[in-house]
């Protein structure tokens, strides 16, 4: 399974300087990866503990670096969640 869907990757590539809000799911506690995210200019807006990951705000160029990291399980758009 790909870490990022083709449609999202195409959006990031098409708008490399635009800001995107994303969810980055991680293989482990994301706290140890936050310094690296900040070092490439990614703003961590929320850290999740129940399901390891973080909500981030970053440019398309920054986001395209995320799937290359071994500790990243998936990168997806940050969208509202609703219940039935």
Assembly state (oligomeric):
single chain
Number of helices: 3
Shape: globular
Count structural domains. Answer: 1
First CA to last CA: what distance? 28 Å
From the coordinates shown, what is the CATH architecture? 2-Layer Sandwich
What percentage of residues falls in helices of 4 or more residues? 10-25%
Average pLDDT confidence is 95
SSE sequence, one letter per element: HEHEEHE
Number of strands: 4
Residue stretches low in confidence (pLDDT < 50, at least 5 long) are none
Strand order of the largest sheet: 2-3-1-4
Brief overview:
The chain is 23% helix and 32% strand.
Structure report:
The protein is built from 3 helices and 4 strands, in the order αβαββαβ. With 84 residues, it is of the alpha+beta class. It has one domain: Alpha-Beta Plaits (2-Layer Sandwich). A 4-stranded antiparallel sheet has the order 2-3-1-4. A hairpin with a 4-residue loop joins strand 2 and strand 3. The protein is globular, with a radius of gyration of 12 Å. The relative contact order is 0.30.
Protein topology:
Elements: H1 6-14, E1 19-26, H2 34-39, E2 43-48, E3 53-59, H3 60-63, E4 72-77
Key attributes of the depicted protein:
3 helices, alpha+beta, 23% helix, globular, Alpha-Beta Plaits, four-stranded antiparallel sheet, 84 residues
